[in-house]
Amino acid sequence: MGPRRHARRRGVLLRLSCRSCCGVPLCSLDAEGPFRSRVHLRARQRACRPVVRPERGAQQAGCVRPVRVHRRGGGCSPRLPARVGRPRGVHDHGQPRRLRLRGGRGPHVARGRHTRRGLLRGPQVLRADRAPPQEPRRPRHRRRGAVPAALPAGRADRGRLPRARPAPARARQPAWDRRAEPGGRPPRRPERGAGRGRRARPGGGAHRRIGDARGCEVERRGRAVISWAKTRFERVTDGVDIFPLVVLFALFFFDEFDTSAFAVLAPNIQEYFHLTDRAFGLIVIGNLSVVLALAVPVGFYGDRLPRSKMVVIGALMAGVFSFLTGTATLLYALILYRLGNGMGRLVNDPVHTSLLADYYKPSTRPRVFSFHRNGEQLGRVVGPAVAGITAALWGFRAAFLILIVPIVATALVATRLRDPRRGGTDDPAAAVEAEREDPPPFPEAARTLFAVPTLRRQYLSFVFIGAGLIPLAYYLPLFLKREFGVAEFGRGAITAMNAGLTFAGVLLSGRWTARWLTRGMGEPLKRAGLAVVAVGIGLAAVAASPWLWLVVVLGAATSFAAGVFTPPFVTTQALVSPARVRTLSFGFGAVFILLGAWLLFIIVPVIRVSDVYGIRWGIAATVGYWVIGGLILRSAHRFVADDTNRALRNLALTAELRGARLEARESALLLCRDVDVAYDGVQVLFGVDMEVHEGEIVALLGTNGAGKSTLLRAIAGVVDPVGGLIFFDGRDITHADPVTGAQLGIVQVPGGKAVFPTLTVAEHFRAASWMFDEDEARVVAARGEMLQRFPRLRDHLDHLAGDISGGEQQMLALAMAFLAEPKLLIIDELSLGLAPIIVEQLLDIVRDIHARGTTIILVEQSVNVALTLADRAYFLEKGEVRFEGVTSELLERDDLLRSVFLEGAASAKGGSKPAAAAPRHEPSPSGRVLLAAHGLTKSFGGIRAVDDVDLEVREGEILGLIGPNGAGKTTLFDLLSGFLVPDGGSVWLDDVVVTAWGPDRRARAGLARSFQDARIFSSLTVAENLANALERHLEVRDHLAAALVLPAALEQEDDVGKRVTALIELMGLGAFRDKFARELSTGTRRVVDLAMAVAHYPAVLMLDEPSSGIAQRETEALGPLLLRIRRETGCAMLVIEHDMPLITSISDEIVALELGHVIARGTAHDVVRDPQVVASYLGTDQATIARSGARSLS
């Protein structure tokens, strides 16, 4: 037919993009050019995008037919790109109605007409033709109905669509092109069945069309399956990119395929290498031991290295060594190959799980983890079945040889994975800031994990679960073969069926986990623990079953319970694990599984049960481990909510603190936010916030037991916080160990325990130089500098630290601290047990250290002393910050500066009468002498500590003993109480010479003393310590009577309990009654020590610095309390004290010592004004003299 020309007419066309990812751009196009019946192109028109032309005939605008884009179009209905806030595709009013033909296939356009047999091979380029203006030609197919017109050209998002190709100019004919002339196109290939010059064989074209139709149907169904799978994955990920989940799912599937095949074929391998159960079990467990021991390094480096590359390397190793397993003919080669395969599989649990947690949001993680673990379960379904069939046909080696191709192919696809930002799905903004932090070292990362209570319980449960889990890898196949004679194919089928039930359990549990989370954050872990218990019960039933069908049924139910365990457990662990160490969190579990297998299965040894008693008893022996592990895991559910909130809060705080540090003009050297610390489950600090700027001195004050020392230990890394964050110089040190803290420049001087008594001063200097001890010149120079700064230590370089005075010990501690060149110096209890003049000297040293640029945190019980150093202070009470501001303002806060323990006891009028009903006495200085010393002398290596001291303490008298550190006061106490034997002189107690008596005999005679360091039994509770102090007054001392629970012993126990209760009420220790002494603060231990001395109800009470280590308000209440004790018991007192307001207010007389001899004795008024006492002891600093009592703010 020749070309026909018609009048120009404008038509509406629908242009389809060649790319399936693009949308369908709608636009109007002028239908120009001559009408041609066949598929031709205009001159210079590019053969590019397929277009759909309107049907020839009238009303063609309503008859635009939908068409499927061939090949690259994907064979699916085209869709427009999604717009923000609107669904993907065009609106209903503008979308052409889809036509349907018989058979459910849409119509296709090819060669200018519709064909029902499918598309032709190769891309078909369709031209937009111009419809004839005359009588329209009748279409060759029956019209199915009108189709609404396409969208108008002015769509709102038209600017984002591909532009239409330019049409030829209307004023001239299309340019000449050779292809438009006869012979200009290449000849067409003859159709199959037709020869040149001959007619085609009848039916040839029909056969071709039938074949094309079948191929199209297969292709359509394949695409439908792919579309269903894609929809399924997108439903799991909630529309997020499914590629990571698909790849990790496939890797997990193939790796577990290999493991399941090895388990099913264990009897074959055991027979081939002639191994016993014990030998085969040792090989399996030994192999797993090496592999699982490497799980921690993998998890550690998974938090530092690119995880996607680790996934690829692990997959390649697993595939190659699985292939080599099938080639092993020697036992050592088999062990080596299985070791390599296990090392490749190591990344599956820690690295895969960590990646998925960072790829997908927390709301979708239960479904994602469930789907990912289904790859493992699917491998357990397919692996045993294929391994059993393959082994039955070609031998057990072939089952391992077939895996190399799919594993390597999947590993190559995995190279397209990209590493997500760690914690980016939890809090994107916080993750960006946290990513800038350096990864924590391994000790710090481990401390971070073990600070989470939920993880601690999980790891403990793994010890028991591992002892029951690892043996099942080869116990169950051996059980089926030996007890019921099941061959390879049968074992594979049963194992595959069990894995299928596990698969179903994982699938359903993934859905249930999201529902359980709505009931409480700990509900999933509770259900996971119950699932583990159910597994143990199911294994017990399997071991006792006599019939194979019952074993199959019970095994299926047990496998389903095992599948229910995985999603809630993994979801919970991902929630409670800190983002920075999440990979290590998943890897740590393998260590405890391994520990349980060795400790509870091999060492116990349960591994020999199957060889001695049979395989049934071998399985039954592991049941208890499953039950115990499940119950421990279930008990962790109560910690999940707090741990999850803490992990999210810490991530947000990390970003906040780092951002604040980057934006602040004045840098904060130390930042503490929401710090929580607990001892053995008892929380001590509650959300403490503190900020210390560089070059500042900050005082940390508070009541006894408020947590001051605990906070300092947390900053220095001695104790591990359970919550909150601590930043030092821009680095997160929340879980850093003390060594790391010291290397960063944090040095602490602990109160009262800063030196080693059995080392010399020179050895202390050497020990303090441990960070640079390899540089001998630097060590010598640093020691020389410290001796210049602390000249008093030069004369004691060869003396033991325990032999020098308390002030010199504090100087040594400060010298050791300064040797480490600290950025932050933490001083705990600077004035603890020191004379006023020594404290004055130490304060000058601290000021000099601060002047050199060192930031200082000072913990001090005396607000008066703190005022002399720090301008800003924090005040703690019951583990919380109650005040932060100028130190002088604290003196106006009576609600804070109050006595917690002693004020009530001191002001009580009567109260509970002491149990030992001693008669009341009034002070009588002129009464009889109860304690006397005549000419006492004591020397230590040529140093005269006590030099010819005479002393008398009368009935009802309080005698004060003062003097500088090293004056011999404590040595005199040791001589009087019997802990030291005098070199000369005598001691009298109530007119009896007791010089040769030991301390116990003197105590029974009525002499009691306290110690400067509060020596009480740390392993006993407060109530037990007080009961022990009442031993002097026990009437029934027969151990046999107590063992036989005789009435006299019971009555005495009740009496002791009442006395202890009265003492606890008297001293205000009710909150600490059942706490161990080692858990108490320094000040609280001092109060307990004082209560024990009172419980003794002595005739003479000797108190060595009773106010040492207790808060200022407690000290101010201590004086009235001692007066009340004297009034109630009638005892005489000998008191050593450095707090001058306290000692002067309670003493009838004061004795002053210096260098072991008495320099003054008299009333308090006369002694404190003695020039010699002032020069040698008091000094001139009123703040150090008046540590308690009122102080002028001027």
Quick summary:
By secondary structure, this protein is α/β, with parallel strands linked by helices. Helices cover 47% and strands 12% of the residues.
Molecular structure report:
This protein is α/β, with parallel strands linked by helices. It has 5 domains: 162 residues, no CATH class; 411 residues, Growth Hormone, Chain: A, CATH 1.20.1250; 226 residues, P-loop containing nucleotide triphosphate hydrolases (Rossmann fold); 183 residues, Rossmann fold, CATH 3.40.50; 80 residues, no CATH class. The chain has a 6-stranded mixed beta sheet, sandwiched between helices. Strands 21-22-23-18-24-25 form a 6-stranded mixed beta sheet, with helices on both faces. Strands 7-6-9-10 form a 4-stranded antiparallel beta sheet. A hairpin with a 2-residue loop joins β4 and β5. The radius of gyration is 44 Å and the shape is elongated.
SS strand fraction: 5-15%
Q: What general outline do the C-alpha atoms trace?
A: elongated
Largest sheet: 6 strands, mixed
Q: Cα distance, first to last residue?
A: 118 Å
Number of domains: 5
Per DSSP, the total helix count is: 42
